Write the structure tokens for this entry.
Amino acid sequence: MMRDLLKQGETFFSEQRFEEAKKCFLAVIEKDPLHKEAFNNLGVVDFKMGDRAAAFEWVTRALTLDPFYKEAILNFSEILRAMGQLHQILPFLEKTIQRYPNDWHYVNLLAEAKSNHITNGNREPALAQKEHRKAFFVLSSGRCGTLTLARLLATSRNAKVHYYPKPQMFQEALQAYWGEIDKQKAFWSARSSLMRNTWADGYIYGETSAFVTPFCHLLAEELPESRFIVLIRHPKDFVRSGLRQNFYHGHPSDAGLLRPSPKGETFKGWEKQNQFEKICWLWRETYIAIEGILEKVQKERVLVVRFEDLISNIEKVREIFEFLSLEGFSEQKAAEVLSAKLNAQDYKHFPEPESWSSDLNDLLQRLCWPTADKYGYSLSEKRKPLERSLGNDSSVRASALSHREHPMVSIGLPLYSGGTNLADAIESILSQDYEDIELIISDHGVDPFVSEIGHYYQKLDKRVKYVHSGDQINYIGIHNFARMIELSTATYFMWGSYDDRLEKSFISRCLATIESDDSIALVYPRSKVYNKKGVFLGLGADSVKADSDDAFDRFIHVIWELQMCHAFHGLFRRSYMRKTHSLRKNCYAHDNLFLAEIALLGKIVQIDDVLFIRRLTRKLKSNLDEHHADVISSMDPIYLEEGLTLPFCRFTYAHCELVNHSALPPERKESLTREILRCFRRRWAVQLNYEIDRMIYLLNNGVYYQTWDGRTYNHDLRKRTPNLHYFHVTDVLKSIREALFIFPEHQELQKIYESSIANIKIPERTVIIPTQVHQEVR
């Protein structure tokens, strides 16, 4: 009831019906006097209605209930800013930033609040007399160390330091690097207001965003008082951090990370590099670019700072203060900032450079030398690993059980890449409260660091087996999933996923249920869903009631109710899985098909516990062609090579094949086939109609081969390669026959089928007469 009231109030607010919204939120508080969200919303409503005093009281009450409530803190700052009293938020911010030291919202807000505090009577008289238009910028290859430096410099009395201020200029920085935009216009349109306000208050403007790097030559010319700090990090630590944060594979800043222009000649070669090579390229290219830009800048305006020196020597902080003409250096404050351990390398068991193979270190040496040498880094040196305690960390531990030849549960983790998520995914499996497991990591990719992680965990925990197939054709995509079943030895099996997580009791809770009934083929829990930025979206909309004793009934529930397919990552009885065939089919959406086949064999049970953590990391494609190309190429690229196909028709027909190849009685097969056609024609009508219309259009224009990613042949194919044309036409005919089975009333489809039959012609062949061999008969 309260949730409905809250939702109704938010709807009224969005419609600017403020009085009605206020009544809803007051009703919530009447039912729950400790409802912080309602108090916060009341503050926002009154602020919009112009009653700042009331808004102040409401949001203060929300913060009293939860001093770390982020929405309330940000709303409180808006109210105080409007009242000219932003400094009042300092007590809340100083506590909050201790808990969330990496949140740039709080870092920037703290700097502004402190400036406001000085403006309201605490500024030194001499400060107002200082020259304006003084600024400094930190040039770096990424976020590594920039937050630490921002917090150190923010302790000064005469500077406003901004850590990635909005707009963050992701795309503008990249276009500036490519030379495709007017740098002057792009930069000043984004920063002029912020910088003008800073100078008007008599402060030095400071920015530590890496995205300012491509603009540094412009800034050096137009701000002659400006200075630059080149913040550089040991390439080994930078590459490790980039791998852990998943640069170029889903990091929020990927849109602005340097890369060659797609219009240039070097882009295709760069695009084929693996993640490790790209991050090495980013490190090297950034500092080569900085060197080239700053060649004409007076040396006294540039200070090179190695991050390792910054965090280990407070005197280096003092040197930076003096270089930037900052006032108020304090050893105590600097020590407090450095003790906050903002070091991005503190990643539990994520492999450190000291554990990397010699091949990987040799690759880093080749890619980052000689730039690393210029900055005094020896890539072959033995470095002391960062502190970490395997013995005291319970996130991953070797099993206390003696390692059995055949554990109870096998987890197959098929990989192609993993980046930031891989180590976390492995740790969520190994930290299960049920320990009698084996984790089989099957890698068929070309990324050397994925192999490093696999070998690393194999050494760390005896339950881990790392297997590299060395085969990027037979074991790619869905074929690697199928291979996992055969590599396993346990009674029960489940697939892991590099971008999802398991709660600690996932296996034990599922195991307790599946062992209670031999007819259960699969148990899976409820799920919670997050987007790729880690924002909670809600519970997964995936509940399939397929626990009946009747296979017919189970199958119907799967085809009608299956949505997010989280059940695919549940706990299976392996003996049932080995009876299946769907993973080996040329098809689309093998996971849906596989669950339908499992339903024919045994019960599928969902337990109430919320134990599966789903992260939505797949990029949404702009059209169905791109989506099909992406899904098919990632799961079964051979199917993509068939050319002109109907994926959803094939998907529908494959379900019919499952039924008609099953052990069901003929009458039930007939009934279930009709139900499949009724279900899929309704659920997937848009996709089915689109792909059929596309095929008819292409065939009417003489195109018998075109993949979903747009590859095709010239129209004279049938003359130049009659054998190839024959196969293309027969493949198309098969696809049309399956579509006609689903849509027998489709007249245009029938016509194109008949015209395609007329088009096909068996190629003429030269008859080869074998040489007669005379043998003596004895």
Notes: The chain has four domains: 1-122, 128-374, 409-616, 624-759. Residues 121-131, 342-347, 385-403, 773-778 have pLDDT under 50 and may be disordered. The radius of gyration is 32 Å. The longest strand covers residues 603-616.
